[in-house]
Amino acid sequence: MTDFIAGLPKCELHLHIEGTLEPELKFALAERNGIELPYSSVEDIRAAYSFDDLPSFLKIYYEGMEVLRTEPDFYDLAMAYLRRAASQNVRYAEIFFDPQAHTSRGVPFDLVIRGLRRALLDAERQLGIRAQLIMCFLRDFQAEYAMATLLESLPYREWIVGVGLDSDEKGNPPVKFRAVYERARQEGYLLTMHCDVDQENSVEHIRQAVEEIGVDRIDHGVNALEDQALVETIRERGLGLTVCPISNGYVTDSTKADAIRRMLDLGLRVTVNSDDPAYFAGYVQENLAVLAEELSLTEEDLVQLERNAFEITWLPRHLKDAYL
Ligand code: ES4
Ligand code: ZN
Q1: Given 3.40.50.300, 3.40.190.150, 1.10.10.10, 3.20.20.140, which CATH number is that of 2-323?
Q2: Of the chain's two ends, which shows fewer C-beta atoms within 10 Å, N or C?
Q3: Residues with beta carbon < 5 A to ion ligand 2?
Q4: pTM higher than 0.95 for the full model?
């Protein structure tokens, strides 16, 4: 099955570019930028990656970004990811970035997006992998800051396919960002947001995302299964769910494999993705392998998962069809 998964043309739809910062690159960027890291080796950094819930993960994730300062830093980050993805036969990726994680520490939006964009263009030419950017707002910051970030993004509108919402969900429901999402839609952005696994009020947050915000996709969204009516709406609208098994295993005590099996059986457009692969030790291939093992997936199941992913991409129809 490993060979089958390796050979399968794949699609990644839930990937935080800042979550692909491997310890080796972290060291290289620290040196280039004259930053002293509190670690003496790659092993040291990996050993410090001990988290067992979302807040403990997020703390390490944001601290790790300190080495990202210049346009070439963002270029190198994205290029390293795209090289890795291409080597796993990922043909297309939609990549989240967190501009506020950078602007909040004085790194300009323009530099972040230019570095990422340049990598996407080079990767398409050099590696044959296509990708688009999704801008995420940090939900634990004020809605006004998200709105300001949305406005700041408008000159780069053509480089961003949609918006998302991530970071700490506790006490930060979808409706906090109602006005931001309304404006984003008016500007022509497609809409997604995280409804992380097993959060306080998970089902209510998914309901808000679907019914009140009107998202085009849901990131995670596993807890929708607890509500029959919600499942029905998600199915009727053909909304995709970007699920991340290995990540689930870190921030909860389970990969939620059984839930993914049920979603497949219900005919929901569930997909398998990697979230923060440098931190959770697994890119899309490893996520598929873990799931295949746990659920004894057939080749047809794996094909279905990738079909779902290509089907829910935010590509124009003719480009999407080329993958299907
Ligand atoms: C994230 Cl696992 C997870 N949850 C919420 N926000 C995030 N940003 C990056 N990884
Ligand atoms: Zn995520």
Answers
A1: 3.20.20.140
A2: C
A3: 275
A4: yes
